Each structure stands twice: as C-alpha cells, then as structure tokens.
Amino acid sequence: MSVMQQPSCDHSIAADPGSVSLSSLRHPLVERLLRHYPEELQRLVAGLGSPLHVMLPQVFTENLRRFQQAFAQSPASGSLLFAKKANKADCLVQACAAQRVGVDVASVGELEKALAGGVAGQHIGVSGPEKSDRLLALCISHQCLLAIDSLAELQRVQQMAQQRQQPVNILLRWQPDSQPDSRFGLQEQECQAAIAYCYAQRQWLKLLGFSFHLGGYSVAERASTANQLLEQCIAARKAGLEHCSKVNLGGGLAVRYVDPQAWKAFCENNRPDHYHAARAFAGFYPYGSPRAGAEALADLLASAVGDGLNLGQKAARQAIELLIEPGRALLDQAGLSAFRVQAVKDRSTSHGYAMVTVEGSSFSLSEQWFNSEYLPEPVLLTASPREPAPFVACIGGSSCLEADMLTWRKIRFEHPVRPGDLLLYLNTAGYQMDSNESPFHEARLPHKVVVELDGHALRWKLDGLA
C-alpha cells in the first residue's frame, strides 16, 4: 500500500531555522483524490508517463459559479470570459459552454478550440496586439467581441468588415495611466481619434465599449481605471455611439495557494541560503493573498468611485455591463501535476540536502522560467511503505540544463524520497502546467487526464476525448 506524505505544515525547518514550510491549500475534492486514490494516481502515471497533468473540471465549474455569484450580489450586470491562455485543456472550454460562460482568446488556434468546444462566437472575446488577418476574419464571421489595440488595427478591421458587408463588434483597449510604457492599448489621444473613427464608420464598426489590462493585483487601481472607462462610455454615448455599454476589467484577480499567515512568515524569513546554489529571485507571485478569486471581484465591485457610489452601483446606474477575464483565478485548485522520481543524489554530507531528479522538466512548472519559483511545496506519494525520517531535498528536472529546477528551495519531507515515488505539485492548472511545455530533448508533451469523482468511483479520460 502506498503512503502519502506532504511537507510538514507546522512552519518547521527545512535546512535552516529561517525556512518556513508552505503547504498547498487543498480543495475537498483534491484532498479526497489524494487520500483515497493514491494507487490510481500511481497507475495513471505508470501508464501515461511523467509528468502527468490531472484536470478537475468540477472545481473549475465551482469557481465559475462563485464569480457569477459575486456579480449577482452586486447591482451591476456582469459577465465572465475565461482567459483560455491560462490552460490549454479542452475540458475547460467544454465546461464554459455547458455553463454558458464566455472565453477570451488571442490566437486562431484558441478561437477554433473555443468554437469547437461549443462556445458561441457572440460569447468569445478576442484580445492581443495587431491580430492577423485570418484571426480578424474569423472574428468578424463569428460575431466575436474584438478588442482593438491600435488605430491601424481599427482601420484594417473596418476595411475587412466593409468588404464582407458584415459589421463587427469592438471594444477599444485603453492604455492605463499607470502603465505609460506598455506596448498595449490606445493612449488618450489615440483613443479619442479611434472613437471619432468609429462614429464616422459606425455602419461597420459597432463600438460596444472599452477594455483594459493591468499588471499586478491592486483592487484600488483597477477600480480607478474602470471608473475612467465608465466615463468614456458615457461620453461616447453622448457623442452618438449609443451601443457603448461595456467595460472589460481584464483579469488580475489573485489566487490563494497557501495560508496567508504562513506566507507572511515566509516573506519575513526568506534568504538565498534557503535555496540550492544560494539562488536569489527577483520576486514571487503573492501566494498567500488574504483576499482572492471571487472575493477580490466582490471587493472590486464594492470599491468607491465617487458621488457616494461604488463601482457596481455606478455601472448599474449607467446601464453599463462589466466584463471580467479571469484565467488563473478560475483555475484555482482545478488541476495538479504528478512527476515520478527518477533518481536521488545524496549530498547530505557536502551540502546538507539531497538532489532529487524527476522524469520531466520545469517546462511543466512554468514559474521557474520567469526568474521565479513555484513556492507551494509538492506532496510526496511514496511507491512503497517506509519509516518516517526527515529528508531535505531540492528537485530538478531530467534535462541537461543547470537551470532546470522545479524547486530550488530546500524542502523538508517527513519520509525519504526514493526512485519510483511521485511528487505531486498541487494547484498547477493556472499558467503552470502547460504555458511553456516544449518537446525539448525530443521529449513528448505530457498528457492531461480529466478526473471525475462520483461517490466512491473515480473515472478518467484523456483530455480532448468526448
């Protein structure tokens, strides 16, 4: 019988008294999967290879409903667009279609996948800079909502719409004042010129509103920018563009991966000597966000925007619909990644910790490729029973690159790690598992399996199968 262990969750020491444990929070479905089906996970990896990504669309659907509930509790009319770039799994698009939730795409391939998954074109938003003619043509044909990034793109779209004798629904992407060096969006003067052009070409360009994207997770900054665009909608309607009634707030709603108190303790005690080769990082994702996901959306809608109104109230008073494009936040707890241990190099005498090598690479844990670290610690699923004994290790991939490290930080496990064990990285569906996967070294791309738990039964299928 396999034995499952996670790193100590009592803020205990890894290799140093200042190193704090960061155990992943677990959705009840994830807890159930790990507690009751360890043998099935071992068999899936044995049959389908390492790494193996496990998708949990039931959790994704729960997250969709939580966001919808946040809108329902606000006076504002609101809609979701799932940011497909956050994960390539087909099961997620299918879940969106089943729940009548839209999808945000930025390429021909993503648009085709959304349509094939059953999402109607009217529920698809198309973003990204200077889109190809092919993408624009598909967008016009399927009546998608197109975010315009430049005056030149606006003119191209108008010409294509006129040639096809089919009007196109558009948003103008605003460049926020806080991001003057961004290569995306229209600056103030460009935006006013675009509004005038939309009015002149209103037979072909149906201006439905404005969009923006912010870096970071500031609710106050997002509310301030949204308020600016509410005013832009009001002004555009006064200028004769009567359909201007949408503001797309973008994404940027944080996910809570670990306990906020543990995160605070980690940030206060983090040092380079807690990592292999004293690796230092420019920064980390806010893994312990106190307000996250649908909670952050509720905070945004309740943000004061002047005249005694909050954002939701002002949008409702002006009959302006608010759109949101979460990616990572809708994928919270909706997937995990299993890596099989290939070898263990004991360097406890010289370094005080072991180096574990897994089958696979950090291309399947994408945070490592942005000069950062995926800090939630992996769960150890042992291939055979063994006695507890503290075991400190870092975790590397099987490529020939020094930088191919899944976990630079020295992690303390409660059982020794051995070849054949599984290391399970939880909550990897959002941007981690497939954003940077590559057939480097002629390796095949990892499989995704869709798992459903119904009563005492575990059912699975390869992603993409009907």
Short descriptors:
ten-stranded mixed sheet, 2 domains, alpha/beta, Lyase, Ornithine Decarboxylase, Chain A, domain 1, elongated
Chain-wise SSE layout:
Elements: E1 3-5, H1 28-36, H2 38-48, E2 52-55, H3 57-72, E3 78-83, H4 90-98, E4 102-105, H5 108-116, E5 124-126, H6 133-141, E6 145-148, H7 151-164, E7 168-173, H8 188-200, E8 205-211, H9 219-238, E9 246-248, H10 260-269, H11 294-301, E10 304-306, E11 309-310, H12 311-317, E12 321-324, E13 335-347, E14 353-358, E15 379-382, E16 391-396, E17 405-413, E18 422-426, E19 447-454, E20 457-462
Parallel strand pairs: 2-19, 3-4, 3-12, 4-5, 5-6, 6-7, 7-8, 8-9, 9-12, 14-16
Antiparallel strand pairs: 1-15, 2-13, 10-11, 13-14, 13-18, 15-18, 16-17, 19-20
Structural class determined from secondary elements: alpha/beta
Poorly predicted tracts of residues: 6-15
**Beta fraction of the residues?**
15-25%
CATH-defined topology of the largest domain? TIM Barrel
Number of extended strands:
20
- CATH homologous superfamily designation of the largest domain: Alanine racemase
Which percent bin holds the helix content? 25-40%
Instruction: Please report the distance between the alpha carbons of the first and last residues.
Output: 33 Å
- Mean of pLDDT: 93
Please state the CA-atom Rg, rounded to the nearest Å.
Answer: 24 Å
CATH class of the largest domain: Alpha Beta
Largest sheet: 10 strands, mixed
Outline type: elongated
